[in-house]
Amino acid sequence: MFARFAVRQASRNLDHAEYHQIMINHAALSSSSQSGYRQSVKMQKLRYYAAPKTETKTPPPSKAVHSEFLRTGRISRSREDWLPDERRYLTYEEVAARTGRRLERAAETTHERINSFHRSIKFPKIIFHRTLNNSPHLGYCHVTAARTNFAQYADVKWAFYIANFFAELGGEEVFFEQIKQNYGRMYFAVAIKAEAEAKSMAIDRSIRDNGLLFRTIDPKEALRNVLMLGARDAELRKIIAKL
Questions:
Q1: 30 within domain boundaries
Q2: Which residues lie across from 2 on neighbouring strands?
Q3: What is the DSSP string of 159-175?
Q4: Residue 140 φ then ψ, to 5°
Q5: Alpha carbon of 76 to those of 47, 56, 57, 80: distances in Å?
Q6: What is the pLDDT of residues 167-179, one digit of tens each?
Q7: Is the residue at 83 inside a domain?
């Protein structure tokens, strides 16, 4: 499941036009014109609400509000004497925005770790996210993209992603299937190719049938695999393999 790659030469950056295509059209992860994912059971429409802020102050001693009124004739204005705030339900747009910010923060950190490993391995930072239709608390984020040669494949363009769910990947009808939320994150890379007619990037299914290069929930395994794709020579690959 978790692949290691025998890289024959250094990865080469995609040109700016190809970056632009990836960022504008995300056909690379969605073979369906609808949602790009499917679950095994039909999902009910979800509702989201803002979690109350945790109080850091020590709560004052409880007192009977009615007794205080009878004793002093004053109505307490203290918040502790009244009902807690009502739940504020969030729109899907608000949830998607929060999800996106978290994903992009994780992508920023991951990219920094990748590029800090060795001065000869530097990947471009191309960070943007997408959330899933009807489940805006779930999403995935593009981290970087490059091209390389590995195994029997030559000049393979690929893209690396982080998702905040786990799923089966690479289906022809939809890319994400059997989504599971009981994992922290999923890291994966896919081979991509340019589609001249659509002027966009799509999954290159000539690589391993489904275009999937690797998938893991282990951040160290993900780092190793991405670095192996970018290693310049055998000596550096040996170092990476010992991580």
A1: yes
A2: none
A3: EEEEESSEEEE--SS-S
A4: -140, 160
A5: 34, 22, 19, 9
A6: 988 777 778 888 8
A7: no
Query: Cα(130)–Cα(37) distance, rounded to whole angstroms?
Result: 12
Q: What tens digit of pLDDT does each residue of 177-200 get?
A: 888 887 789 999 999 988 877 667
| Ranges of H-type helices in 34-130 | 65-72, 92-115
Rounded to the nearest 5°, which phi and psi values hold at 33?
A: -80, 0
Task: Give me 80's structure tokens.
Answer: 């502790």
> Does residue 214 lie in a domain region?
yes
Look at the chain and report how many structural domains it folds into. 1
Q: Is the dihedral of CA 108, 111, 117, 119 positive or negative?
A: negative
Report the alpha-carbon distance of residue 91 to residue 8 in Å, rounded: 49
| pTM, 2 dp | 0.72
Tokens 């939320």, residue located: 181
Q: Which distant-in-sequence residues (6+ apart) come within 8 Å of 55 by Cβ?
A: none
List the domain range (segments joined by +) for residue 169: 16-43+92-241
CB 138 within 8 A of CB 164: yes
In a domain, 71, yes or no: no
- Per-position DSSP letters for 174-223, written without gaps between them: -SEEEEE-SSS-EEEEEEEEEETTTTEEEE-TTSTTT-EEEEES-HHHHH
